Predict the structure.
Amino acid sequence: MSKSSGTEDLGRKRVGLALSSGAARGLAHVGVLAVLERRGIPIDMIAGTSIGAIVGAFYAAGKDISEIKKAVTALNWRQMLSLADFTIPTKGFIKGKKMTGWLKSVIGDADFKDLKMPFACVATDIETGAEVVMKQGSVVAAVRASASMPVIFNPSRLGGRYLVDGGLVNPIPVRILREMGAELVIAVSVVPYLSDRLKPPDAAGATRPKEPNILGVLIRMMYIVGYQAALGGLREADIIIAPDVAHIRPENFNRARECILQGERAAQRAIPEIERHLQA
């Protein structure tokens, strides 16, 4: 099993898994988890941001990969609209109560202390711009805050603060895992960086971007804001798994199966390197 109880394999490095933000592309995290579990790679703790917080919370709560796949592959546009409780946009277009209900339908009213392994997720204080790391209290409330995309979702009020998506300040929470005691950190990144999509449109091999919709514009704005923080997270990781999902729009939740497949392929390629680190 890859979910470590913390009592077996004494003497090996403690492994932390960082799951990045990235909207629909982050569904690749499910494929990565499936391969790591199948290959017996131990996971002692997880930290996630935004979609990474959602997938990470499901796994930390002890949900089977099959259950997680079922939950996320249902997220086509019709399902996404059913989770959208639109409101007059004074804070955001969507209240987020239905999203909270969906999260509860998967993991219930779990508290962080009830999880099968240590878990943390990241949000942004909209007043101060500070990073907020959540490790206690309601898991659903914390994850909802971590995935509250500004303008789209109303900010979450938690601990006297108004919180929005953690991708603005820490898209790949590697440092958080170090602080939690991880000695080997595997970062799974679906945040675009130094890719063909960053080349000028007339550069050799560049792909011409499609006109984005409003959700795509907001997601890309978050990528731009969090770009340097994402690079910092990657530099701190021991191993980077980067699923090939740059061709999938961040808003394309209907392509969940393709994202999961790309996650599986990327994780499989990383297995030899992970095993070398574990044996070192």
